[in-house]
Design brief:
mainly alpha
Length: 97
């Protein structure tokens, strides 16, 4: 808020040489804004990278769990020799969902 008040005060002055608004202060503000934007970009890049990496790890873990479950269900289907009922592929897919 103070920065905006300062900038609006400086933009309304005609004689910049005798006022408190100098070229040096203006350049300082420009450099500070550029540094701030650079820091913001770096922090947001790290944040999005870590979120993406965590999401990919969760996705891989879920796929691994589903694949393991499908193997257990398929192997527990029974055999014709023991007289147990075999599961069809459709039943296994429905159970996985």
């Amino acid at each position: 808020k103070d920065l905006l008040n300062y900038l609006s005060h400086c933009s309304g002055q005609e004689d910049l040489e005798t006022s408190e608004c100098s070229l040096g202060k203006g350049m300082l503000f420009v450099v500070l804004i550029l540094i701030s934007a650079g820091c913001q970009t770096t922090v947001l890049h790290q944040y999005f990278h870590r979120c993406f990496r965590t999401g990919m790890r969760l996705n891989a873990a879920c796929i691994s769990l589903v694949y393991g479950k499908s193997l257990r269900i398929a192997s527990a289907g029974g055999t014709e020799e023991t007289g147990e009922e075999q599961r069809t592929t459709g039943e296994i897919v429905n159970l996985m969902a």
